[in-house]
Design goal:
Blueprint lengths: L11 H12 L6 H13 L3 H6 L7 H15 L4 H5 L1 E4 L2 E4 L11 H11 L5 E5 L5 H9 L4 E6 L2 H13 L4 E5 L11 E6 L30 H13 E10 L5 H10 L2 E8 L5 E8 L6
Parallel strand pairs: 3-4, 3-6, 4-5, 6-7
Antiparallel strand pairs: 1-2, 7-9, 8-9
Helix pairs in contact: 1-2, 1-4, 2-4, 6-7
Length: 287
């Protein structure tokens, strides 16, 4: 690390100062990143760093920490280095085969928890790390959960998370709704890729799987595919809930209305952005 402390000065406080300086230009959360990486390397909670700033880690711990900081400086997300990400109050295993769960997706989960009828058959499309499916299985054990993803490596991560949290979820390797039977589902929900090709924000997300982020020129290709086939899969009165970009709500509502969905609406996230759009399959819909 630049400004690396000497062995005499390699205390927790000194290591954090050097790491923050190195990461300042790379990360908007340089201080937090440094603390998370050092706490994990030490095998201690973050509170240890505040309680023992003069603690001098061993040379091997310093070397591992410096390697972790170097990886973060080169673009590796902290969650991939740690192998874990907190979501909806639980820790989930993550690796570069899955998208790192975001706080935005908690809006989708909250909507589902509140709106899913008792005993519903629920399918999480494009499950990735299994974040949505695992939380729903924990929060709504009355429902039957199935999660799909076309990526086998992603499904292995999701299955591991379900086992770790002792959740009952069925798994299917499939592309969106393609393998689901007609009129077999009460609720479909998904956090699909919705970033447009060429979006300038993609540069900061280069370490994450591009097929979990990007979906066509306007970012709506995956949502179009899901909305188009959802009426076939959903039972009468079944619900479809979709996460999308902060500026895509109007377009997604239009797609839902064009596909014959009723009671179409959007729900705002904690930042006030319309983040989730949903609708109900009409009882007389014929597809």
């Amino acid at each position: 690390m630049s400004d690396q402390p000497s062995a005499d000065e390699a205390t927790v406080a000194a290591l954090l100062r050097a790491a923050r300086a190195l990461l300042a230009e790379r990360s908007d959360t340089a201080a937090l990143d440094a603390e998370l990486l050092l706490a994990a390397t030490l095998g201690k909670p973050r509170s240890f760093l505040y309680a023992w700033p003069d603690h001098a880690p061993t040379a091997s711990v310093r070397a591992r920490f410096e390697a972790a900081v170097a990886a973060r400086s080169s673009g590796t997300p902290v969650a991939y280095t740690l192998g874990v990400k907190e979501f909806f109050g639980i820790d989930l295993a993550v690796n570069p085969s899955v998208l790192i769960p975001r706080p935005d997706t908690e809006t989708l989960v909250e909507c589902a928890i509140e709106r899913i009828p008792m005993g519903s058959a629920v399918v999480d499309l494009g499950t990735g790390s299994g974040a949505v499916a695992v939380v729903l299985a924990r929060e709504r054990p009355d429902c039957r959960l199935l999660a799909t993803d076309r990526s086998l490596p992603a499904l292995r991560v999701a299955q591991g998370n379900a086992r770790h949290h002792d959740c009952q979820v069925a798994w299917l390797c499939a592309d969106w709704t393609s393998a689901l039977a007609a009129r077999s589902v009460d609720v479909l929900l998904s956090n699909p890729p919705y970033v447009a090709e060429g979006d300038p924000h993609l540069a900061a997300l280069a370490a994450e799987p591009v097929n979990a982020l990007v979906s066509g020129r306007d970012g709506l290709d995956a949502i179009r595919a899901i909305v188009a086939d959802a009426p076939r899969v959903l039972r009468a009165g079944g619900q479809l809930l979709l996460e999308h970009g902060w500026d895509q709500a109007a377009a997604v509502r239009a797609l839902l209305c064009e596909a014959g969905f009723e009671a179409v609406e959007s729900v705002r996230d904690l930042n006030g952005h319309e983040r989730v759009s949903l609708g109900r399959r009409a009882a007389d819909a014929i597809r």
